[in-house]
Amino acid sequence: MRLPKIRFASLPRPVWEHILVRVEERQTSLQDLDQLQDRVNSGPWAPDGDWYKDFGSFIICGSGEFPKTVLTGGMIPFGNQLK
Predict the structure, then answer these.
(1) What pTM, to 2 d.p., does this model score?
(2) Which one, 33, 46, 51, 80, has least CB within 10 Å?
(3) 1 burial class (0-12, 13-18, 19+ CB within 10 angstroms)?
């Protein structure tokens, strides 16, 4: 069985709005967003269930193929950690 890729394009509008609010609230830097862009460009596979990717200064959490929120370092993520 082939896993779907994490969807960063064509997310439902409420999901994008939530992520953008969290990026602003948590003062995610342009350097941080560049790291995320590199990850997006790599076409990561989406595991079943909840997951997170720790970038050091921020963490992106999701479920299945959808990213769901952005946390700052020190906040506790949920799900399985992606490498």
Answers:
(1) 0.79
(2) 80
(3) exposed
